[in-house]
Design a protein that fits this description.
Blueprint lengths: L17 E2 L15 H13 L4 E8 L8 H17 L7 E8 L2 H5 L20 E5 L9 H10 L3 E5 L12 H8 L3 E5 H4 L5 H12 L5 E3 L5 H10 L3 H10 L9
Parallel strand pairs: 1-2, 2-3, 3-4, 4-5, 5-6, 6-7
Bound molecules: fe (ii) ion (FE2).
The site of fe (ii) ion has 5 residues, from loops.
């Protein structure tokens, strides 16, 4: 069988310089396990064009019971390692990827950590990165998102393309987006890293102009390798052309 070689080009830079979704802080979720690993991930992001980082460690009931203090401690360990290795860190601010679970509903307001870029002042309506369970959408999701907006947050649903239960209910994407929930799609989903179905839905969201932010959702070096590969593909060029001028990443 004759196979056409897929067209490749020099790696494009990421279409943003502010990373809004990554797990680079050491030892507090399923991202970097230790400070040296954190530095390796940061270095890979910088190679791809990232200049500012909003670190979004998980806050998930039972699995990753982080709070502002545990996240700040992890950053201190990262900073100490950077200093020890004479590495200059890019500007980093601390936020979270909040799982919408019962713990989230009980969080003190001081432990709700919106997406505020390093060096930026918090706005009156900060963006808040939230994720659904992968198994099932909560029945009260819409009312929780509504309450967040009443409190002044603009919810950003992390990787909407990864919730398989929405794939055959695309009207849910339309309804969520129309009601004011922003969407952050993972580059690795557009790359096909999470499978063909997820890639198809990510491209559907792109074509319908539902992508407000992109993120690497970087957890480990395998993600960095897959992302680098994607940046040389013809698909990345097509995706980034479509998204030009639309992403909110660098406004944070
Ligand atoms: Fe994440």
């Amino acid at each position: 069988m004759f196979l056409f070689p897929s067209r490749r080009h020099d790696p494009l830079p990421l279409p943003y310089s502010t990373e809004v979704h990554c797990h680079i802080l050491p030892g507090i979720d399923d991202g970097a396990p230790d400070p040296s690993s954190s530095l390796a991930l940061i270095s890979r992001l910088q190679e791809m064009g990232v200049r500012r980082i909003i670190a979004t460690s998980h806050i998930t009931e039972g699995t990753f019971p982080n709070r502002r203090a545990t996240i700040a401690d992890a950053y201190s360990r990262l900073k100490a390692e950077a200093d020890a290795q004479s590495v200059i860190l890019p500007p980093v601010s601390l936020a979270a990827e909040h799982r919408i679970d019962d713990d989230f509903l009980r969080l003190d307001s001081q432990d709700i950590m919106p997406l505020v870029g390093p060096g930026s002042e918090p706005t009156d309506s900060p963006l808040l990165l939230v994720e659904n369970s992968y198994a099932v959408q909560r029945a009260d999701l819409d009312s929780i998102l509504f309450d967040l907006r009443l409190k002044g947050y603009r919810p950003v649903l992390a990787h909407p393309e990864r919730y398989l239960y929405y794939h055959s209910h695309r009207d849910r994407y339309e309804a969520l987006h129309a009601s004011g929930t922003l969407f952050q799609v993972n580059l690795l989903s557009l790359a096909g890293y999470n499978g063909k179905d997820v890639r198809k839905v990510a491209e559907w969201l792109l074509e319908h102009d539902y992508i407000d932010l992109l993120g690497s959702d970087m957890h480990h070096l395998r993600h960095a390798d897959a992302l680098k590969e994607y940046l040389t593909s013809s698909a990345s060029k097509r995706h980034f052309n479509h998204l030009e001028g639309r992403l909110l990443n660098d406004s944070l």
